[in-house]
Design brief:
Blueprint: E1 4-8, H1 12-23, E2 27-31, E3 44-46, E4 49-51, E5 58-59, H2 69-80, E6 84-87, E7 90-93, H3 97-105, E8 109-111, E9 116-121, E10 126-130, E11 135-138, E12 142-145, H4 149-156, H5 161-167, E13 171-182, E14 192-194, E15 198-202, E16 214-220, H6 222-228, H7 233-248, E17 257-270, E18 277-279, E19 284-286, H8 289-292, H9 296-315
Parallel strand pairs: 1-2, 1-12, 2-8, 12-19
Antiparallel strand pairs: 3-4, 5-7, 6-7, 9-10, 10-11, 13-16, 13-17, 14-15, 15-16, 18-19
Helix pairs in contact: 1-9, 4-5
């Protein structure tokens, strides 16, 4: 049986799935539609500033029982190397979250700017069609989806009804983020702020940062993100800046850099309550935070356990 796997998506689930398969002798390639890695663990760098406008931290894995042993080893090594930094009930990443995703992606063959736009069932096998019109035919290889649930559904809706029905019950909801860089310090004496609508991180407070700009990343909470997800990026920027100013109860200076970002599938609203989905006949696996929960750690557990399932299939 083939010991090759194609993984769609280079977020936490796809990267940890690839790590586990590679560790056990698989040949793995990841195809990622974006120019960066990490999926919803996103970092934007500008001149003199940086913003973690996706997940800014992960739950402290040391508080979780029954983590897959290889994932636990991977994360403990990240702690020892000071890639992950404990922070209350969470772990953040040294300098930026990109440090963590770079650590996860080390040694993996990743094709960036490679979006899979269609998947067709062949007889036998599966065909992947990419945005650059190139194609790949899978005869006996494993195919793993490590992308948000709506994107999975869109790709499999025509030829894989049985898998579609397994995935369809999950739901995701949108969120918005604001990125604000100031020439002068926003004097709050706090690295984290929140109210009922938003929460925000002071990027300069992250260990390993020495930024010239005073950088804040503002994230929406669930109802607020859903309410304003229809706005343009410019409108999101203005809306979140207004909320930021109200929360700080001060006259914020005008930022010299400001942008808004929309995550169409920012968070899990309804998880499948499964570690992963695996269809043995088609050799298709699906992993992600939305399979079992809502966090980066859920995504990593899902990816690792799916890899373990694939490995047991090969051994059998």
């Amino acid at each position: 049986m083939s010991r090759k796997a194609i993984i769609i998506g280079a977020g936490a689930a796809g990267l940890t799935c690839a790590k586990q398969l590679l560790r056990n002798g698989f040949e793995v390639s990841i195809f990622e539609k974006s120019r960066g890695l990490g999926g919803r663990i996103a970092t934007r760098r500008i001149e003199n500033g940086i913003f973690n406008h996706g997940a800014s931290r992960i739950p402290d894995f040391r508080n979780f029982n029954n983590l897959p042993i290889n994932l636990k080893d991977l994360l403990e090594t990240a702690l020892k190397k000071k890639i992950l930094i404990p922070q209350g009930n969470y772990c953040t990443s040294f300098a930026s979250m990109k440090t963590f995703t770079s650590y996860l992606s080390k040694g993996i063959d990743i094709q960036k700017n490679s979006e899979v736009i269609a998947i067709k069932r062949l007889n036998p096998g599966i065909e992947l069609l990419f945005n650059n019109t190139s194609k790949i035919e899978l005869k006996d290889d494993f195919l793993v989806f490590a992308i948000p649930q709506p994107q999975v559904l869109n790709l499999i809706k025509n030829d894989f009804q049985e898998i579609f029905d397994l995935v369809q019950p999950a739901k995701m909801y949108p969120s918005i983020s604001g990125l604000f860089g100031f020439n002068e310090s926003v004097s709050l004496n706090r690295s984290f702020i929140e109210n009922d609508h938003i929460f925000g991180f002071h990027e300069n407070s992250r260990i390993g940062q020495n930024l010239k700009l005073d950088c804040w990343t503002i994230h929406s909470k669930k109802p607020y993100g859903i309410k304003f997800s229809h706005l343009s990026k410019a409108q999101i920027r203005r809306q979140l800046f207004k909320e930021f100013a109200q929360l700080t109860s001060s006259n914020l200076p005008q930022p010299i850099y400001a942008d808004g970002h929309r995550w169409l599938y920012g968070f899990t609203e309804k998880a499948l309550c499964k570690n992963y989905v695996f269809h043995q006949q088609d050799k298709i696996g699906i992993c992600g935070d939305w399979c079992r929960g809502a966090s980066v750690l859920d995504a990593s557990i899902s990816g690792t356990l799916l890899a373990d399932k694939i490995l047991t299939t090969v051994i059998a």
